[in-house]
Structure of GLPGLI family protein:
Amino acid sequence: MNIPIKKIMVQALLLRILITYGQGHSIEYIMTYKSSLENNKKNSQLYFLDILNNESLFRSEKSRDSDSIQNKTGYSGSGSTIFNDYFYIKKNMNNNSVYKFISVPLSTDKFNIKMTEPLNWKLSSDTKIIEKFRCQKAEVEYGGRRWIAWFTEEISIPEGPYIFNNLPGLIIQISDKNKEYVFQLIKIKKYYHKELYTTKMGKEIIQNEYEKIQIDYYNDPFAFVKSQNLKL
């Protein structure tokens, strides 16, 4: 889905009020990425980072809408045939754990992976203003890519999109060196729910198993589902 990038809708004063007095926050990021299947055509997708009581949940707008429907109707199937359409990143700031939860397309089965690759941030003295916030540069190697982040200590939440966290403030923008993936904060507001949405815990696997599941699925989706004895 293509989403036009609109002007950032965040007011610095409002943000400071929310951060000071709010217990939970819902942060909206837009991810812009180059499609390898469409001659590097740029696409965009909305993601939400919900934070409550030292835990956070990162998911796409599509996943968030699906979760809302599930809570109301009890229907738990994603209905998607694209493997990465429905995934969640859950972080616990108390024990620094990060888990990725994956819904298997064409089924209701789920897997979860403990993300163990460390984030060895290198802080830079470089600074710049991004949408009224004084941001500082940080770099990290992750997933075979070099990522460049801009965070602000004006918002003292050590969080960010996807698996990225543990900087001295909120990540306002982060991209890989080649800008194939760019996350940009566009909105922040108070999170009014009493708890984070908790997806069903699945079978715990490691990254190599996850990659094999993806390959097997894309080679023959229906044969994969049948071989795994998954529920359609």
The longest helix spans residues 61-73. Residues 12-116+178-220 form one domain. The mean pLDDT is 80.
